[in-house]
Amino acid sequence: MVDLTALLADLAAESEQLDALVAELPPAGWARPTPAPGWTVAHQVAHLAWTDHVAHLAATDEAAFFASVTSAPDPTRLVEDGAESFLAPPPALLARWRAGRSALAGALAAVPPGQKMPWYGTSMSPASMATARLMETWAHGEDVSDALDVRRTPTARLRHVAHLGFRTLGHGFAAHGREVPTAPVRVELTPPVDGEPWVFGPADAADRVTGPALDFCLLVTQRRHRADLALVATGPVADEWLDVAQAFAGPPGDKRQPASGTPA
């Protein structure tokens, strides 16, 4: 069973790492463009604050959560409009994000055992929600660090992102309109810190993905193109998966192009 307390502590630590990156930025730093087209550093933090807010609604007030979905002027722009609606001057935005993520942690801890919360097209346990929030916080933190030309040191918290990336194999195929494979895939990753490899999937699977855990996490969050990563796919399912991997909900995002600029 997942230790929700430990998971929430990891989520808090991931948030605090990003918080430390932006807390002392001057206004010009918040306005810097990030790799996400049209999004500044402020948009990235506003997106996290908005998503924490709707996740809090899902955990505490299902009717209000569903109302936030049905009242959206344009459902196809829910994420973009959510980020825009939470934009504010940096001090206010930072305070809003801090308060929201704290409130969400308390709400997730209070969800009765076995109860799931509604989410976009699915339902989630508190542990799954906390894992998804950690994944998004880390991924958007990568966008911010890219914008600021800062290289963050990867931590053991990436195991949560890697596990979610593995579990969403089928979602990646489905989101891209492809048939979900039935063949299992084995994933063997070198962790960013000393320790045993992180492994997911059956040991006898013919299809395999191997390489650094950081690279796998960058791939499944679509923060890097596979051509720029040291991942090795063995077998047709594994190879196709690296083209469609997507750990986040919703439709496929605008994938990063290779650093060389060569079209995918």
**Main beta sheet strand tally, sense and closure:** 4 strands, mixed
Beta-strand percentage range: 5-15%
Model regions low in confidence, pLDDT < 50 over at least 5 residues: none
**Separation, N- and C-terminal Cα atoms:** 40 Å
Order of helices and strands: HHHHHHEEHHHEEEHEH
Number of helices: 11
In spatial order, strands of the major sheet run: 4-3-5-6
Shape: globular
**Averaged pLDDT:** 95
**Helical residues, percent:** 40-55%
What does this structure look like?
With 264 residues, the protein is α+β, with helices and mostly antiparallel strands. Helix content is 52%, strand content 9%. It contains eleven helices and six strands. It has helices at residues 4-22, 27-30, 41-60, 62-70, 78-85, 90-110, 126-148, 158-167, 169-175, 213-220, 236-244, and strands at 117-119, 122-124, 185-190, 198-200, 207-212, 232-234. The strands form two sheets. It has a four-stranded mixed beta sheet. Helix 3 packs parallel to helix 6. The radius of gyration is 18 Å and the shape is globular. 36% of the residues are buried. The mean pLDDT is 95.
Q: What are the main properties of this structure?
A:
single chain, 264 residues, two-stranded antiparallel ribbon, 11 helices, four-stranded mixed β-sheet, alpha+beta
SSE diagram, text form:
Blueprint: H1 4-22, H2 27-30, H3 41-60, H4 62-70, H5 78-85, H6 90-110, E1 117-119, E2 122-124, H7 126-148, H8 158-167, H9 169-175, E3 185-190, E4 198-200, E5 207-212, H10 213-220, E6 232-234, H11 236-244
Parallel strand pairs: 3-5
Antiparallel strand pairs: 1-2, 3-4, 5-6
Helix pairs in contact: 1-6, 1-7, 3-4, 3-5, 3-6, 3-7, 7-8, 8-10
